[in-house]
């Protein structure tokens, strides 16, 4: 972990978040701390989402005193005031991908339509 400058502020994460990082991502404490720090500064909130489903997913997880942030395939729940990580879990597979009718599950839907046009 890089050393902090005197002007930087260090945010302590909850013990629960480290346990969840170990359980759900297989990360040790040092790597989990680094990932949570990156999520704090580089993660995207619901305001920055392009797709409606992604925006709704993060909005539903943002509540009183908590902010949901997506980063690196995981959803981090942060304290709104201190940005302390409360917990984390993996994002659904569809998150961040363009949703169209032809990509919605049936790979042969487009071929089927062409055959009967």
Would you give an account of this structure?
- With 117 residues, this protein is α+β, with helices and mostly antiparallel strands.
- The protein has a domain at 15-92.
- It has four helices and three strands.
- It has helices at 15-25, 29-42, 52-61, 109-115, and strands at 66-71, 74-79, 85-90.
- The radius of gyration is 18 Å and the shape is globular.
Tally of helical runs: 4
How many β strands by DSSP? 3
Shape: globular
Tell me the β content.
Answer: 15-25%
Rg measurement, Å: 18 Å
- Please write the string of helix (H) and strand (E) elements: HHHEEEH
* Structural class based on helices, strands and sheet pairing: alpha+beta
Please give a quick description of this structure.
The protein is α+β, with helices and mostly antiparallel strands and 117 residues long.
Helices and strands in order:
Blueprint: H1 15-25, H2 29-42, H3 52-61, E1 66-71, E2 74-79, E3 85-90, H4 109-115
Antiparallel strand pairs: 1-2, 2-3
List the main descriptive attributes of the protein structure presented here:
disordered C terminus, globular, 117 residues, 4 helices, alpha+beta, 36% helix, 3-stranded antiparallel beta sheet
């Amino acid at each position: 972990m890089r050393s902090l400058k005197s002007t930087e502020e260090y945010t302590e994460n909850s013990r629960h978040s480290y346990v969840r990082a170990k359980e759900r991502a297989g990360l040790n404490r040092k790597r989990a701390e680094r990932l949570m720090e990156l999520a704090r500064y580089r993660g995207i909130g619901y305001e920055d989402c392009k797709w409606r489903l992604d925006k709704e997913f993060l909005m539903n997880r943002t509540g009183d005193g908590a902010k949901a942030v997506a980063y690196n395939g995981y959803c981090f729940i942060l304290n709104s005031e201190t940005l302390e990580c409360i917990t984390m879990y993996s994002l659904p597979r569809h998150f961040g991908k363009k949703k169209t009718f032809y990509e919605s599950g049936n790979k042969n839907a487009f071929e089927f339509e062409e055959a009967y046009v």
